[in-house]
């Protein structure tokens, strides 16, 4: 039992680290960043704020919205058909809100890693313009959903960017995939508006943003196809 808990925690932490690294690399490619992170990236770029701190504020807002949705849903005794957020369907409201609150310290730690990686990794398209890392194919490889898959599969505390999608999906009785697409589109529109209004050009939106919308879900599916079952066995998740 202790061994499965060890592996579960290990896979979860590894997933968060890989996710933080992937998000950072995403911002360094010059191709445009993923939709959810594009809002904080554009704001931090235009007003020269710290990227990690801006993302922390965004994540905190996500968690507050999650708590409101869970509270409303509990008061109206709504039930989700697709079980997109398992703890919201199976636990009482106090426990659900407690799990939401735990996303605050998670966000603080996660965004500190964003700052660490951002300080360590240079802008790839300007630093290595003639190398594989700076090439178009090399930069595309950085758009990965491996970190998200590893952390989500362990079902501990969701990253707020994933948690809010699950909460909205649970609240509206829509599939997670459909909700994710709508939420991505909302963030893209918001980022475009911020860039055009305050910088008079697009900031953080590019081909990489489109590829993230299309490809991250496929990357998660591919990773899970090969590794989800072995990880579930090691972590004891196949027994839950």
Overall description:
The protein is built from 12 helices and no strands. The protein has 240 residues and is mostly helical.
Which term fits the overall shape?
A: globular
Fraction of residues in H or I helices: over 70%
Average pLDDT taken over every residue: 79
Strand content: under 5%
Order of helices and strands: HHHHHHHHHHHH
- The tally of beta strands, per DSSP, is 0
- What gyration radius follows from the Cα positions, in whole Å? 18 Å
Spans of at least 5 consecutive residues with low confidence: 78-90, 136-143
Helices, by number, come to 12
Structural class: mainly alpha
Please report the distance between the alpha carbons of the first and last residues. 13 Å
Secondary structure topology:
Elements lengths: L1 H27 L6 H13 L3 H25 L10 H5 L2 H9 L1 H18 L3 H4 L8 H5 L5 H8 L6 H13 L3 H24 L7 H29 L5
Helix pairs in contact: 1-6, 1-9, 1-12, 2-3, 2-11, 3-5, 3-6, 3-10, 9-12, 10-11
């Amino acid at each position: 039992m202790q061994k499965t808990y060890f592996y579960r925690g290990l896979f979860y932490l590894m997933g968060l680290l890989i996710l933080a690294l992937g998000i950072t690399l995403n911002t360094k490619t010059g191709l445009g960043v993923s939709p959810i992170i594009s809002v904080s990236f554009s704001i931090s770029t235009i007003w020269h704020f710290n990227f990690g701190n801006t993302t922390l504020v965004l994540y905190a807002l996500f968690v507050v919205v999650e708590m409101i949705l869970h509270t409303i849903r509990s008061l109206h005794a709504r039930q989700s058909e697709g079980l997109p957020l398992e703890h919201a369907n199976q636990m009482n409201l106090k426990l659900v809100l407690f799990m939401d609150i735990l996303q605050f310290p998670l966000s603080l730690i996660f965004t500190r890693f964003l700052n660490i990686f951002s300080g360590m990794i240079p802008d790839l398209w300007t630093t290595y313009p003639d190398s594989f890392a700076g090439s178009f194919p090399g930069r595309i490889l950085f758009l990965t959903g491996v970190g998200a898959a590893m952390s989500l599969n362990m079902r501990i505390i969701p990253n707020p960017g994933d948690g809010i999608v699950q909460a909205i999906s649970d609240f509206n009785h829509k599939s997670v995939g459909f909700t994710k697409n709508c939420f991505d589109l909302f963030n893209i529109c918001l980022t475009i508006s911020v860039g055009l209004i305050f910088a008079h050009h697009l900031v953080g939106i590019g081909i990489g943003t489109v590829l993230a919308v299309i490809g991250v879900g496929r990357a998660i599916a591919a990773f899970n196809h090969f590794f989800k079952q072995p990880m579930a066995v090691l972590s004891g998740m196949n027994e839950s």
